[in-house]
């Protein structure tokens, strides 16, 4: 299989006052054309750092290494900054968590959408505006022509996120990385935006890497799932494999925490895995989950083996049941 | 934007009127005009005569109304000290001060924008520290000392520039450097801090994620939003330079408004002082207005106020 995106042994180290923070540790996954990979995990497990590492947008204090980082035939690990920049916004787009601040307050929506298009595709101002208006319609914004002349502060959060999605689509990307695109929105709008992403994906055929900490979302839209814990992918496979037979105790714990209509009463605290994520500064000996794992055993003190079963992989001393 | 501009201009006019009244009254409270006109050591009946002849015994409100209506017609009265029309005096000196003030601000911006941006692009590196060192030097050196250093270098050693006077553009070079370098550090710090903030903003990350050119990321997306406090400071500094460049005007014998204000206060020349104070405060008010308008143009969110 020739994947659209192939990541092998991705590592992100951050220089922090306390030393080196290993935010992403030896992460591997693949994304095929047109499919949806969901990356899940608790806050701070390195999801955003993984996304930013793909985009080449890591903060200044970060260092990225990878055995293999290939997107659409381009070796991102070896590509010059200019080469990566030419891909961003064109073939490889990103949508962020915070729509309220993701658009520049000083320029109109139209200006910002058109700039991306003209940067990568050239062409006339009119052609760019036409594309922008077309996509605003596609993301469900009425009176698109009028919206193009408006400034971000004149739009609600939900509308701004739709604009961000339109911006990501401007040049017809083959992959969109969406980092918790609905977390900052109202619950009712969250569902609409997710459905929109799914519909647009069906229409335009791009692949989607969706980062979320909500397994309920994953269950609805993922083709494949990668579960991250403390900077590592601890389990990955198709959505069917992971949901039907979670192999890693952490994944199983997350699935148990999904609120089920009827079973969870309103106002009741949702289930959570007890304990906290280990500090990511310095090296972690053995399985990172073992302080919180109900199945921990002496063998877990050394690095757990990776089991594979028909593309379903997990890192745990416990093999297939 | 247009409605905003109209409202702001109306407000500025109202403020100018209030300031003119306040300055008129304050100046009248600071000393007796009749005594000043009659001259040092005048007899009491002479002073009383002057007071009556000039209408200074009428209520302050009436006098203010008269002065205002004269002023609006361009009649600022006659200088008690120079014995000429005040309007002529001011018209003579204003260009010198305006040219010096504007040139200094432009020089300060020309230095501080590139340095501030450069420092913000490489924070906490030797580039940043070098820019900071230049700025600290500018703020630490007393104005007059820097001016004297300039004279030593350019006039006495190199003989490139005239020491004093206002005859040619060369006369303005050193005063501009002296004043501009003095105000530049404040601009540089503001540009650096603003750019560090906007470069870290989400919308700049969006611009990078969209593969925009580095020039667009820095200048179109980051700089525009970092400029707002800089514009406000430029207006304040320019107002300050117009009223407060006495030291530099004196050193380089630039016969400007600052020097005129100094003379008119020393010689109790009420009409001249009044005119200079009014002029400077109106200029100040309209500089603030200009800054507001420029900022409203830079940031559409400011257009609602
Ligand atoms: N700029 C930074 N400098 C230093 N450490 C950072 C920086 N940004 C993030 N980190 C740390 O890196 C680790 C991974 O962060 P990351 O943002 O990738 O988590 P995440 O999985 O996206 O979490 P969330 O669900 O809260 O978004 C965390 O421990 C975080 O504290
Ligand atoms: S390796 Fe051990 S501690 Fe880690 S998840 Fe598996 S059983 Fe639990
Ligand atoms: Mg995150």
Name the features:
heterodimer, A: 321 residues, alpha/beta, Rossmann fold, 8-stranded mixed sheet, 32% helix, B: 305 residues, mainly alpha, MetI-like fold, 14 helices, 77% helix, binds adenosine-5'-triphosphate, binds magnesium ion
Quote the CATH topology of the largest domain in chain B: MetI-like fold
Mean pLDDT of chain A: 90
CATH homologous superfamily of chain A, by name? P-loop containing nucleotide triphosphate hydrolases
Number of helices of chain B: 14
Overall structural domain count of chain B:
2
Backbone shape of chain A = globular
Q: What would the average pLDDT of chain B be, to the nearest integer? A: 87
- What order do the helices and strands of chain A follow? EEEHEEEHEHHHHHEHEHEEHHEE
Percent of sequence in beta strands of chain A: 15-25%
* Main sheet specs of chain A: 8 strands, mixed
* Strand numbers in spatial order across the main sheet of chain A: 7-8-9-3-10-11-13-12
**Secondary-structure element pattern of chain B, one letter each:** HHHHHHHHHHHHHH
What is the architecture of chain A at the second tier of CATH? 3-Layer(aba) Sandwich
- Helicity level of chain A, as a percent range? 25-40%
CATH topology annotation of chain A:
Rossmann fold
Q: Can you summarize the main beta sheet of chain B?
A: none
Strand content of chain B: under 5%
Q: Most extensive chain contact?
A: A-B, 27 and 23 residues
């Amino acid at each position: 299989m020739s994947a659209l995106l192939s990541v092998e042994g991705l590592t992100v180290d951050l220089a922090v006052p306390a030393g080196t923070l290993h935010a992403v540790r030896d992460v591997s996954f693949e994304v095929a054309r047109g499919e949806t990979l969901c990356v899940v995990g608790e806050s701070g497990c390195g999801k955003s750092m993984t996304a930013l590492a793909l985009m080449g947008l890591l903060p200044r204090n970060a260092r990225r290494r990878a055995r293999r980082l290939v997107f659409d035939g381009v070796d991102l690990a070896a590509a010059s900054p200019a080469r990566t920049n030419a891909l961003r916004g064109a073939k490889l787009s990103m949508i962020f968590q915070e729509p309220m601040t993701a658009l520049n307050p000083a320029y109109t929506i139209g200006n910002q959408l058109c700039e991306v298009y003209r940067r990568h595709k050239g062409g006339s101002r009119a052609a760019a505006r036409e594309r922008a208006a077309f996509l605003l319609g596609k993301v469900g914004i009425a009176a698109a022509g009028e919206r193009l002349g408006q400034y971000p502060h004149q739009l609600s959060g939900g509308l701004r996120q739709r604009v961000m999605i339109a911006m990501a689509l401007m040049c017809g990307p083959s992959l969109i990385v969406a980092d918790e695109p609905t977390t900052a929105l109202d619950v009712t709008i969250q569902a609409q935006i997710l459905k929109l992403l799914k519909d647009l994906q069906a229409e335009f055929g791009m692949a989607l890497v969706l980062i979320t900490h909500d397994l309920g979302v994953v269950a609805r839209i993922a083709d494949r799932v990668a579960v991250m814990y403390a900077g590592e992918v601890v389990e990955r496979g198709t959505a069917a494999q992971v949901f039907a037979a979670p192999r890693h105790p952490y994944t199983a714990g997350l699935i148990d925490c999904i609120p089920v209509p009827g079973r969870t009463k309103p106002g009741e605290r949702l289930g959570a895995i007890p304990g906290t994520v280990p500090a990511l500064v310095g090296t972690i000996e053995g399985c990172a989950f073992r302080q919180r794992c109900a199945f921990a055993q002496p063998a877990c003190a050394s690095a757990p083996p990776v089991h594979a079963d028909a593309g379903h992989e997990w890192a745990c001393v416990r093999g297939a049941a | 934007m247009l409605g905003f501009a109209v409202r702001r201009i109306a407000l500025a006019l109202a403020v100018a009127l209030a300031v003119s009244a306040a300055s008129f009254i304050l100046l009248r409270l600071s000393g007796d005009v009749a005594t000043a006109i009659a001259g040092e050591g005048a007899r009491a009946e002479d002073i009383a005569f002057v007071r009556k002849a000039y209408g200074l015994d009428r209520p302050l409100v009436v006098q203010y109304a008269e002065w205002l209506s004269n002023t609006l017609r361009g009649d600022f009265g006659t200088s008690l000290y120079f014995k000429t029309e005040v309007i002529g005096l001011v018209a003579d000196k204003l260009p010198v001060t305006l040219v010096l003030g504007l040139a200094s601000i432009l020089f300060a911006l020309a230095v501080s924008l590139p340095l501030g941006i450069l420092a913000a692009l490489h924070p906490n590196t030797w580039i940043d520290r070098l820019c900071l060192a230049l700025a600290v030097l500018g703020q630490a050196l007393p104005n007059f000392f820097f001016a004297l250093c300039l004279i030593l270098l350019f006039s006495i050693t190199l003989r490139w520039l005239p020491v004093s006077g206002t005859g040619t553009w060369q006369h303005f070079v050193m005063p501009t450097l002296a004043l501009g370098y003095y105000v530049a550090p404040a601009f540089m710090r503001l540009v650096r801090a603003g750019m560090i903030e906007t470069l870290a903003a989400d919308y700049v990350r969006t611009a990078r994620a969209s593969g925009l050119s580095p020039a667009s990321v820095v200048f179109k997306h980051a700089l525009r939003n970092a400029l707002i406090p800089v514009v406000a400071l430029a207006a304040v500094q320019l107002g300050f330079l117009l009223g407060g460049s006495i030291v530099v005007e004196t050193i380089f014998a630039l016969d400007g408004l600052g020097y005129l204000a100094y003379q008119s206060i020393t010689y109790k020349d009420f009409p001249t002082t009044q005119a200079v104070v009014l002029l400077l405060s109106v200029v100040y008010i309209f500089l603030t207005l200009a800054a507001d308008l420029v900022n409203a143009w830079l940031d559409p969110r400011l257009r609602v106020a």
